[in-house]
Amino acid sequence: MTQPFAIAIHGGAGTILREQMSDALRMEILATLEQAVRAGHQLLVEGADALDAVVAAVTVLEDSPLFNAGKGSVLTHNEMVEMDASVMHGAAREAGAIAGVRHIRNPIQLARDVLRHSDHVFLIGDGAEQFAFQQGHVYTEQDYFFTERRYEQLQNMKQQDRFALSEASYQSESAEQEPPSEYPDDKKFGTVGAVALDQQGNLAAATSTGGITNKRFGRVGDSPVIGAGTIAENGNVAISCTGMGEYFIRYAVAGDIAARMRYLKEDVHTACETVVQGELKSVGGEGGLIAIDAQGELHFAMNSSGMYRAEIDRHGQFSVKIYADE
């Protein structure tokens, strides 16, 4: 007898305001989120493993220029794309992660290859790309990732001598107020992710990102760090985070929630809200996360004004949302 299955995705959390988003852009974002969650859910319906479901969902988001991962990745100070990603499978707590890759179209698929086809957990830079080519990934020129929108965002950040973070400590004293953008995500923390429970009871999580605009080359956030931005433990929980990566690393957010559920026996709602609205928010760590427990209960937590997100729950009910008050 198979058990209930479910999947949830996110496309980043942060300062997402209704008045800054056109109806056309909102509809395009919602449609892509729906496409992504349905791609993963269809695999679950067919009896596929949760890992393949979350990778399928994230791949759709990586292929869209709307989200800060893969095709839509932001640019470093050196005007390059550097991408990070990770996956984790809950059965044996296996994981695969990559960071600082520049020429891989779908970093999330490479992270899965690290899990399945290497003796390691985490590969970076040239070493990660060499492994990718050995696994059959095609070299992708930087031009594929370049968009005028991301270039304009970078120039704005350079002029203000800051990163694309809304936290004041990341801004120089001389920085002026950021000019309005036709896109609402200049202060959205760019990460995409998915969590799922399959018919065999396996939990899995996947997270992918282009990082933050105007970051120093070589900077790595929480997305590829197991226990910070991603975690999956069968019988417990799977989590994918999005937010100010330095805080999520320092406070080991995903791992902290998993530990609260494992040792304190907190439910997924209590554990997530305690960390995101409590400890994380108290130190200025803005962001959010998606989580699913061993029974297929889904939860979205955020301390920001919005998070792009969608789900198909264990009852087969679909929903897609953007703002925190939805």
Automatic annotation (TrEMBL):
Site description Cleavage, residues in chain: 190-191
Organism this protein belongs to: Vibrio tarriae
Region (Disordered): 165-186
CDD domains assigned to the protein according to its UniProt record, in alphabetical order: Asparaginase_2 (cd04701)
Protein origin, superkingdom: Bacteria
Catalytic machinery residues: 191 (nucleophile)
UniProt GO molecular function: hydrolase activity, acting on carbon-nitrogen (but not peptide) bonds, in linear amides; peptidase activity
Example of a GO biological process term: proteolysis
InterPro entries the record matches: Ntn_hydrolases_N, Peptidase_T2
Assigned keywords, A-Z: Autocatalytic cleavage, Hydrolase, Protease
Annotated positions binding substrate: 219-222, 242-245
One Pfam family here: Asparaginase_2
Residue ranges, compositional bias (Low complexity): 166-180
Protein name, UniProt field: Isoaspartyl peptidase
First and last residue of the signal peptide: none
